[in-house]
Amino acid sequence: MDIVVIGAVAGGATVSSQLRRFLPDANITVIGRDSRMGFATCGMPYVLGGLVDSMDSLVSVTPELFAEQKSIDVRLGFESIRIDRVDKQVLVRELGTGRTESLYYDKLVLSPGGTARKPEIPGSPSIPIFTLRHFDDMVNFEEYLKKERPQRGLVIGGGFIGVELAENFRHLGIRTELVEHNGHVMPIADPDMSVLLEEEMEKNGVVLHLGREVDTLDGDRIVLDDGTEIRADFIAAAVGLEPNTDLAEQAGLGIGPTGGIGTDRFMRTSDPDIYAIGDAAEGRDWFTGKPKRVPLAWAAHREAFIAASHIAGGKTEMDGLLGTSITKLFSLTAGMTGMAEKMLNEEKMPYETIVHESRSNAGYYPDNGKLRLKIHYDPDTRAILGAQAVGEKGADKRIDIIATAIRGRLTMDDLAALEIAYSPAYSSPKDPVNMAGYKSMERPGKQQE
Ligand SMILES: Cc1cc2nc3c(=O)[nH]c(=O)nc-3n(C[C@H](O)[C@H](O)[C@H](O)COP(=O)(O)OP(=O)(O)OC[C@H]3O[C@@H](n4cnc5c(N)ncnc54)[C@H](O)[C@@H]3O)c2cc1C
Q1: Helix%, strand%, coil% for the chain, nearest 5
Q2: What is the mean pLDDT of the chain?
Q3: Helical H segments across 9-134, by residue range
Q4: Looking at ligand 1, which atom is closest to the CA of residue 277?
Q5: Residue 39 Cα, ligand 1 centroid: separation in angstroms?
Q6: Other beta carbons less than 10 A from residue 296's beta carbon
Q7: Is 444's pLDDT higher than 70?
Q8: Separation of 231 CA from ligand 1 center, angstroms?
Q9: Does ligand 1 come within 6 angstroms of the Cβ of 42?
Q10: Cα separation, 108 vs 307, whole angstroms
Q11: Burial, 237: exposed, middle or buried (Cβ in 10 Å; 0-12, 13-18, 19+)?
């Protein structure tokens, strides 16, 4: 069987490895536009901030290793420019030489990721505007930071990448301001949870401009829509991602309402011989079954397994996505899974909420931290609908427990009953997860009164 994979980073590298495991005799060719394959995109902000001291440590696989160990032909510096679904050919071009070649496929997997959006700001800037998506974006940005040693940076966008960049610029001693057009950073979270992150950012010297947009940019002078003026040596734009659907559109494949390539539960597109995975693909929401895109690494890796297994004859289906995510922000960790208030309100789903504030583990134990855990649940069935945790320690563990509980269709009563490992360094005899479950219960006997 001839299999061609487009994209050689998260989804592309994983799906080709899985395919080799399942299909020892298949001819597998991977086409990638970037200068590196399978690199750890998520580590790039920490390279810029100097926490990770070598960008090469983000690259653990190479085309040579894939050729030698897996007999997979990875061609970097190539891009796919057209899909011919009738003759089952992909036209690829070598970027350095312009040379083109057609590759035949029995099965084609698209994992082309997305393109970082660039804010359109009127004016004539004299300062560089960076985005961070590809390995070479990081190389250029790092070179600038090392060579120019800028003093003042502006981040546009207060989502995951924007807040991580702001933290890393502060590590470099850069005076950092952040503009977010929503009223809060991390706008997918509930506002009361985002406020904790905003306080932490301000405590660490990040100047926030919330509910504001950049109006004009002349020279190094940035004017916001309320007239505020900011001077910066550079801008880092983290204002979202456009899924790369051009190839799919040109080939006439179905594009879903979220703008991603439409897929079924086996990650097949509208052409059963073409699969789409990762940031470019559209999946489904765990609760509503409605189209949903989760441009995060877990989804890309899981979808890679589902597609590879289906090509090999397996029948494992892609379940709905919860959008479980986590980020570190100075001394805090913020995690979430499932539905947040905004989504519940949009879907008109009835819910009740428990907020439990406590220490992460025994308060007398030296290494403990503040933790705020918030859980939304269905008042009738008591099914857990979503959770968020922000804290100095232990937010990751609680979010992962609750993501597991949602997948196992546990209720708030089950949370109280979970037998969670306890010793003073890690938890309390009643873990915050147990406590949230207990707090949601009615007083025993109340219903009979
Ligand atoms: C700065 C940053 C931090 C992140 N941090 C996290 C995190 O902490 N946690 C998390 O879960 N996720 C994180 N993500 C998201 C995660 O990296 C992505 O979800 C994941 O990489 C998506 O995998 P993918 O295969 O769909 O796309 P990518 O990994 O982007 O790979 C797509 C590749 O396809 C190439 N390509 C596109 N079109 C073509 C074509 N026509 N021909 C050939 N090649 C093509 C692209 O150039 C690219 O190399 C982060 C992303 C960024 C940018």
Answers
A1: 30, 30, 40
A2: 96
A3: 10-22, 44-48, 63-70
A4: 26
A5: 9
A6: 18
A7: no
A8: 31
A9: yes
A10: 10
A11: buried
Indicate whether residue 307 lines ligand 1 (CB < 6 A).
Answer: no
Using CA atoms, how far apart are residues 235 and 178, in angstroms rounded to an integer? Answer: 10
* Whether residue 157 has its Cβ less than 6 Å from ligand 1: no
How does strand 89-94 pair with strand 100-104? antiparallel
Q: How far is the CA of 140 from the centre of ligand 1 (A)?
A: 17
For residue range 389-434, what is the model confidence (pLDDT) as tens digits? 999 999 999 999 999 999 999 999 999 999 999 999 999 999 999 9
At 126 the three-state DSSP class reads coil
35 pLDDT above the threshold of 60:
yes
Helices (H), 204-269: 246-250
Distance CA 22, CA 398 (A): 35
The token pair that represents 442 in the structure block: 């009615």
Q: What DSSP character marks residue 317?
A: P
- Give distance in angstroms: CA of 102 to centre of ligand 1: 25
Residues 137-162, mean pLDDT to the nearest whole number: 97
- Per-residue pLDDT reduced to its tens digit, 184-223: 999 999 999 999 999 999 999 999 999 999 999 999 999 9
Q: What is the largest CA-CA distance in the chain?
A: 82
User: Which pLDDT does position 307 carry in this prediction?
Assistant: 98
Residue 41, ligand 1, Cβ within 6 A = yes
Kindly state if the Cβ of 278 falls inside 6 Å of ligand 1.
yes
Place of tokens 């499932």: 338
State the Cα–Cα distance between residues 257 and 60, nearest whole angstrom: 36
Residue 335 Cβ inside 6 Å of ligand 1? The answer reads no
- Name the β-bridge partners of 59: 39
Q: Choose one of 37, 132, 279 to mutate for the ligand 1 pocket test, by most ligand atoms within 8 angstroms of C-beta.
A: 279
Phi, psi of 22 (to 5 degrees): -85, -30
Task: Tell me the CA–centroid distance for residue 114 and ligand 1, in Å.
Answer: 7
Question: Which residues participate in catalysis according to the annotation?
Answer: 42
Cβ–Cβ < 8 Å for 310, 266: yes
Closest CA to 249 of 271, 264, 230: 271
Angle between helices 160-171 and 191-203 (to 10 degrees): 20
